[in-house]
Design brief:
single chain; alpha+beta; Alpha-Beta Plaits; two-stranded antiparallel ribbon; about 40% helix
């Protein structure tokens, strides 16, 4: 299974709003990620920087699923104003960094 990571920033002054939105939306989003083929998903926060790690057998199938998923759209719309996101024009998602390590 391939491992990937991403890095995003919370806009300065929006830390509390990020936490509230994340806590409110996370149960639905967690279920969506599992249905998309993602496993071993973790988010780590250090100050205003978020680091994400996940595994998937088929990255393109995962991206295709998330592009059409209404819960993912709701998450993206809610988080966009408070996040600093560098979008990959090829996928429409934040840049993903292939990783050669695992948390296992």
């Amino acid at each position: 299974m391939a491992s990937y990571a991403w890095v995003l920033g919370v806009r300065p002054g929006y830390e509390a709003e990020y936490k509230q939105r994340h806590d409110d939306l996370w149960p639905e989003m967690d279920a969506t990620l599992r249905r998309s083929g993602i496993s071993n998903y973790h988010i780590f926060r250090h100050g205003l920087t978020l680091f994400g790690y996940f595994e998937t057998d088929d990255l393109q199938a995962t991206i295709d699923y998330l592009k059409t998923d209404p819960i993912n759209a709701k998450w993206s719309e809610s988080m966009a104003p408070i996040m600093q996101i560098d979008i990959d024009s090829r996928t429409g998602f934040p840049f993903l960094l292939p990783k050669q390590w695992s948390l296992d």
